[in-house]
Fold this sequence. Notes:
Blueprint: H1 9-17, E1 41-51, H2 62-79, E2 83-93, H3 99-116, E3 119-127, E4 133-143, E5 158-162, H4 167-176, H5 180-184, H6 188-199, H7 208-214, E6 217-221, H8 225-236, E7 239-243, H9 251-259, H10 263-269, E8 275-280, H11 282-294, E9 299-306, E10 310-314
Helix pairs in contact: 1-3, 2-3, 4-6, 4-10, 6-9, 7-11
Amino acid sequence: MAAAGGIDEFELIARVFAPLAADGALGLTDDAAFYRPRPGRDLVLTKDEVVSGVHFFADDPWDAVARKALRVNLSDLAAKGASPVGYLLALGLPKDFTVDQIDALGAGLAADQAAYGLSLYGGDTVRSPAGLTLSVTAIGEVRQGGMVRRGGARAGDTIVVTGTIGDAALGLALRLDPALSGRLGLPDVHRDHLLDRYLLPRPRGALATAVADCASGGMDISDGLVGDLGKMAAASGVAIDIDADRVPLSGAAQAAVAADPRLLAVALTGGDDYELALSIPEAKVAAFLAAAAAAGIGAVPIGRARAGEGIAVRGNHPALADLGSGSYRHF
């Protein structure tokens, strides 16, 4: 990559990325890296990309964008029951980036590497005429044969979700319409909570072992609770019933829905939650809920898998009559 922002590609690697590198990355001086999994462990690989104007706003701070790019991948690993070990990063930089921005990006990655226990193994840096992009390939480990699959749900399983649902989708609505918070009468603390949940997901890696031990099926909620559970139902060959009254909403989301009941549909279908949706055999539900409580993470049963196909959302709320496709559509 040619020089830009007062720094060229090799200076960028030495300044920002070499300090983040794992031992197997060889100081980012080679064309590839190596990683040797521990005996009895499988590697779990996942890849997600975030693009300016699609997954974040062009004026979002680069440290937060970097953390979001990493965290959406860590969320996928957690849903598979895998613990993170490292990642690869493909970075597309706009022509007018500054050294301060790239330093902030590196600081964001460093903070989350320390928080979540993983290191950089390599990647690539290119010019991006469409704005900042970050494509992360995350690498995790799980016991051999233990990866939890989207298609593992079985009739009779309990459907459990972590955290709260809909905060990020409502936060996006506030970003797109800055006057919405005032019309809803949201206090600043509720507005700020929703905006923060859109900007910075909370991957549930602390529950990876419990997911591997307890869940028969699982995925993270990235495109909307209803739509993503519909994908799980289809992949597993079961039907899933959800009780809308049991879906956990934060105080901020409850306040928004109370002010405008139509926003419940946004919360249930809007995406960017990055919480876990798990199918757990009845005999293991208590153990999983106890593990979540010990980790300080909320977890709530919201429904059940049964023989059949499709997804049904039950409840008397008028917003449930029109949930559309149930999820964000990428194309």
